[in-house]
């Protein structure tokens, strides 16, 4: 796509204690044109960040000796570091995916998936991290919501809402069409990119979107217990309400 970032201009980090997997993945990414830095443990990776290394994206293993991947991510987010993180793991249960996304990861991919799928997701996430040039520099406003499209930051009544990139993309999709119903499929595509497979049949992506919307609502309600702007269209999807009346 014309807006895809140039791989040669992007530096990707790999944090994984499996030397064969780490070296194979680094080689594949290098062959695809990316610059790569790799670490065998979370402690060394965090030390590298503290020393000033600037990455565009990091690929994190979950199960590692010492600091595991989710703890590494928590420490990054605790310092307000917004480096996009993708979990690459053998853990396939939905509970791990939900924990990763709640912790601030932008994606969760099983190690058994092909490199072609991984590289496609990497491109989409790097592209999503770039400014939304088509929308211009002006923020998008929908009632009490303000979306800064340059920085991918969301504000509710002037307060920052701590959304992941995928969650921001879903809120952006809803707010840009405030008052209009968006289907589960449209919201899934907004958050993950078109064409991704999310389990068997319709229930795969519907379950994913429902979990994401639940997280988004909770983040808004943390700031405003009366938040009621995301309405549900049963069996179809969700809508950003233009008034404080919600759908059942």
Question: What this model shows, in words?
Answer:
The protein has 248 residues and is an alpha/beta fold. The protein folds into 2 domains: 7-129, Rossmann fold (3-Layer(aba) Sandwich), CATH 3.40.50.2300; 137-240, Arc Repressor Mutant, subunit A, CATH 1.10.10.10. It has helices at residues 19-31, 42-50, 69-78, 94-102, 115-129, 165-176, 184-192, 201-223; strands at 11-15, 35-39, 57-60, 85-89, 107-110, 140-142, 145-148, 153-156, 159-161, 182-183, 230-233, 237-240. Helix 7 crosses helix 8. The protein starts with 10 loop residues before the first strand and ends in an 8-residue tail after the last strand.
- Identify the CATH architecture of the largest domain: 3-Layer(aba) Sandwich
Q: CA-to-CA gap between the ends?
A: 40 Å
Helix-strand sequence: EHEHEHEHEHEEEEHEHHEE
Shape: globular
Instruction: Please tally the helical runs, counting DSSP H or I stretches of 4 or more residues.
Output: 8
Summarize the structure.
The chain is α/β, with parallel strands linked by helices and 248 residues long. The protein has helices at residues 19-31, 42-50, 69-78, 94-102, 115-129, 165-176, 184-192, 201-223, and strands at residues 11-15, 35-39, 57-60, 85-89, 107-110, 140-142, 145-148, 153-156, 159-161, 182-183, 230-233, 237-240. Strand 1 (11-15), helix 1 (19-31) and strand 2 (35-39) form a beta-alpha-beta unit.
């Amino acid at each position: 796509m014309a807006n895809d970032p140039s791989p040669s201009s992007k530096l990707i980090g790999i944090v994984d204690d499996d030397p064969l997997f780490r070296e194979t993945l680094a080689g594949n990414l290098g062959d695809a044109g990316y610059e790569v830095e790799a670490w065998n443990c979370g402690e060394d990776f965090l030390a590298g960040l503290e020393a000033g290394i600037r990455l565009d994206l990091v690929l994190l293993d979950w199960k590692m000796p010492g600091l595991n991947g989710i703890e590494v991510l928590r420490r990054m987010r605790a310092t307000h570091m917004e480096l996009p993180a993708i979990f690459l793991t053998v853990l396939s249960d939905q509970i791990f995916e939900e924990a990763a996304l709640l912790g601030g990861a932008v994606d969760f991919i099983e190690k058994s998936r092909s490199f072609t799928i991984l590289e496609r997701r990497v491109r989409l996430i790097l592209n999503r991290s770039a400014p939304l040039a088509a929308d211009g520099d002006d923020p998008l406003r929908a009632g009490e919501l303000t979306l800064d499209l340059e920085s991918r930051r969301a504000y509710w009544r002037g307060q920052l809402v701590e959304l992941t990139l995928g969650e921001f993309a879903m809120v952006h999709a809803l707010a840009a069409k405030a008052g209009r119903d968006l289907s589960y499929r449209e919201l899934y595509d907004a958050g993950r990119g078109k064409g991704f497979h999310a389990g068997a049949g319709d229930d795969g992506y519907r379950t994913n979107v429902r979990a994401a919307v639940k997280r988004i609502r909770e983040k808004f309600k943390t700031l405003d217990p009366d938040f009621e702007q995301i309405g549900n269209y049963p069996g179809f999807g969700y809508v950003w309400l233009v008034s404080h009346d919600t759908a059942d």
